[in-house]
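Render this sequence as a predicted structure.
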Amino acid sequence: MGDLVIEAANIVKDFRLGASTIQGLRGLNLTVERGEFLAVVGPSGSGKTTLLNILGLLDEPTSGKYLLEGVDTSRLSDVQKANLRSRRIGFVFQTFQLIPWLTALSNVELAMTIAEKSDRMVRKRPREVLAQVGLERRLHHKPSQLSGGEQQRVAMARALVNDPTIVLADEPTGNLDSKTSEEILMVLSRINRELGVTLIVVTHNVDFVKVAGRIAYMRDGRILKEEAKAR
């Protein structure tokens, strides 16, 4: 077994709905090695986003244990989790979640400011990562002046700017046409391959099966099977 970034053991997540309890995750087990590209594939309602929220410290499991780089996250305070999120986890969302009145550059700079990076790094690093995702000529454009694919590239740059341990992507091509989806897919694959970033994507898009190093198939709050691929 290689260097494990994620160890999730017997994760259960319940949601209260009136007098009823809905099981989002049902004893899920998952390990992810440093530098992996894992695609979690399954239908709507299978628990993919619930899993991602727990891995990203946006939510807590009802029971089970989640270790991030060997740290038992159940022992962390809310402040410690927030600090860990801002410094070690990058997020890419289906809806981009860019601040509309800020330029591409400012959106990425803000992520570094929140993580309390030095002024020198804030001046330099965002430009580097925007160039890595092919947006060096679009630094001063606001989201409304960018295509959907360009907005998602800004979101990817924002996720990468603090050199996270892992990047978590929730349906990153869900709002894009097929050609743009393929472009984003290739950018994510290149980021994983060239930068060694651990990448976990939850998706309906079966095209991710073509490029991910490992695929986990989810249904009804469980991982039914996994497939490892030769990269």
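Summary. Strands lie at 4-17, 20-33, 37-41, 63-68, 71-72, 89-93, 166-170, 198-203, 214-219, 222-228. The CA atoms of residues 42 and 94 lie 16 Å apart.
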